[in-house]
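Marked as duplicate of an earlier ticket. Keeping the data here for the record.
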Amino acid sequence: MAYKIDPSKCIGCGTCAGMCPVGAISQGADGKYVIDSSKCISCGTCAAVCPMGAIAPDVQ
């Protein structure tokens, strides 16, 4: 199970990307961050450090 960033809550600070141990998070053209689910190892680090609570498990 990968994680997903809610773009309506993301402020583009980049904290999540800086803490991701596998480099699964990158900044999109709109300045918001996105998680590459094929790289995500579901460790939860990004969700733990996001100051806006914008990251949660992607439960599709």
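See parent ticket for discussion. The chain has a mean pLDDT of 96.
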